[in-house]
Structures are given as structure tokens and as C-alpha cells.
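quick q for whoever's on today - can somebody do inverse folding on this one?? i tried earlier but teh output was garbage lol. C-alpha cells:
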């Protein structure tokens, strides 16, 4: 029986802090058997991961999938370059956007979707330090406003 739904394996929490997300794509990942077994145990790290387009193919670099504990000589290399599976028109669109401006491809999360490993890939632009401070300030103000509204509603009921 096939598993349904979406089970998150790993997320890149710093990506939304360091980059402004412009667009997101879902891509399959070409993996070997021991990598999938290791991912089923929930082991992966997207911390230093990034994607590039070489010769019309999208490659995921810096993704760390530790060796499978029960693997033998067939075990994989933990930080090998892995091919991402996207439609040709998506690859062409991404290639054009990356070449025309200073944008990059950053993986946001890795998950199982109906038993297959997928990566949520973002077309992103790097943030400057002042952008990060403004975002932090904006989130703080929104949090305080929400808190105050909640207090007023509770005060009115009480």
C-alpha cells in the first residue's frame, strides 16, 4: 500500500531569513537506494544546500544525507551532487531568470509526497542586513498588534 500525504524530512530554516523568496517549484530528486532508506529514518540536512543549472539540467549541491547505518559496500557518498527532476519548460524559465538578474536557487524543504522524495525549490534573491532588520522589526510589530487585539477581545468578554 502506498503512503499518502506529505511527510517533511528536512527544512532549511535560514533560507527565508537570508533570502527573499520570489517563486517556488516542486522537484523530484534522483537518489540511490541507501539514500532513500536514510531519508526514511528522517536524516538529512539542507543547511549548506543550493542548486545550480548546468547544461540544461538542475543539480542539488551541498545536501547532506548521512550513510545508511545498515548499508554495506553499496552505501552512498553523503554530500554527492544529486540531479533534480523538473519539466523542460520550468528549467528554461529558471535559466532565463537566473541569467538576467542576481537570483539563485535555494532548497526550502525536503519531503515525501505519495512515497516519492521531493524538494521545494525557491527562486530567491539574497537579502542585505538592513532588509533582515526590517523584516525582524515588522514581525515584532505584527506580533505585538496581534497580542494587543487578543487582550482587548478577552477584556471585552470578561
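ok took a stab at it. sequence:
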Amino acid at each position: 500500500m502506498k503512503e499518502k500525504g506529505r511527510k517533511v524530512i528536512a527544512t532549511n530554516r535560514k533560507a527565508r531569513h537570508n533570502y527573499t523568496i520570489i517563486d517556488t517549484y516542486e522537484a523530484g530528486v534522483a537518489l540511490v537506494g541507501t539514500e532513500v532508506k536514510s531519508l526514511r529514518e528522517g536524516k538529512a540536512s539542507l543547511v549548506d544546500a543550493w542548486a545550480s543549472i548546468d547544461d540544461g539540467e538542475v543539480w542539488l549541491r551541498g545536501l547532506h544525507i548521512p550513510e545508511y547505518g545498515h548499508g554495506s559496500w553499496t552505501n552512498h557518498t553523503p554530500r554527492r551532487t544529486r540531479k533534480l527532476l523538473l519539466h523542460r519548460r520550468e528549467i528554461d524559465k529558471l535559466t532565463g531568470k537566473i541569467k538576467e538578474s542576481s537570483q539563485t536557487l535555494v532548497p526550502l524543504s525536503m519531503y515525501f509526497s505519495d512515497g516519492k522524495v521531493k524538494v521545494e525549490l525557491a527562486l530567491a534573491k539574497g537579502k542585505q542586513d538592513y532588509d533582515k532588520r526590517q523584516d525582524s522589526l515588522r514581525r515584532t510589530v505584527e506580533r505585538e498588534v496581534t497580542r494587543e487585539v487578543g487582550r482587548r477581545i478577552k477584556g471585552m468578554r470578561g
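fwiw The chain has a mean pLDDT of 84. also DSSP finds four helices and seven strands in the chain. so keep that in mind when u check it
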